[in-house]
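User: My instructor asked us to take a sequence, write out its structure as tokens, and then describe one feature of it. I'm not sure where to start. Here is the sequence I was given:
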Amino acid sequence: MKRIVEICCGSYEDALNAYHGGAKRIELNSALHLGGLTPSLGSLIFTKQNTDLEVICMVRPRGAGFCYSENEFEVMKYDAKLLMKNGSDGIAFGFLDKKGNIDKDKTKQMIDIIKQYHGIAVFHRAFDCVSDPYEAIETLIDLGIDRVLTSGLENKAMEGIELIKDLQAKYGHQIQILVGSGINANNATKIMDETNIYQVHSSCKDWLNDPTTSMNHVSYAYASSPYENDYDVVSKQLVEELINSI
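Assistant: Let's start with the prediction itself. The structure tokens for your sequence are:
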């Protein structure tokens, strides 16, 4: 199976950097410092107009967890329809109940919307907050999810490598397993070789300075020192290095 690198992008600029670095597929978001939220239509449209990237759009209305109100759910469904109508190749999303189980009803409704537009249904790292990964992945397979993004229920994929390997062995023939969190040119091949997965997901993150982040007695910083006046971007160089490494 051909190995695939998916780049996690937070903007149109990120998408261009990923594209020029050699990526073929991205996950398009906004607000990556919150774990990734729904991107703007403008960023999607410009990406599809000016690149040949396969674009999976995040649908996530807020930070924190994945147990959503009915009002949030209605917005998420509408966002998914708008993104698919405007060229998205798929949607990344995740719904859990308060106990950490897959919310079957919401998940099925979102899958149905995606499939109306012949798109790819991706369950994102909400999977890493489930109470039972084996029960969860079997539920996702039964519901018709195409791909699941996971770090093996750990903060970084290297720490979850044994679970990832086991999930791939048991379920890799039924669902695509995409590994993310802490993936870079130094560890991607090791993770792929040890788990037999063939898809990795990376932010290839670098920082750029915006001198207006902190002015007078006001600060809009979200990163810690030494990046407190910076914002995160996808590095074309790091994308190239990751792709070349595998």
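For the description part of your assignment, you could build on this observation: The chain has a mean pLDDT of 98. Try explaining in your own words what that tells you about the chain.
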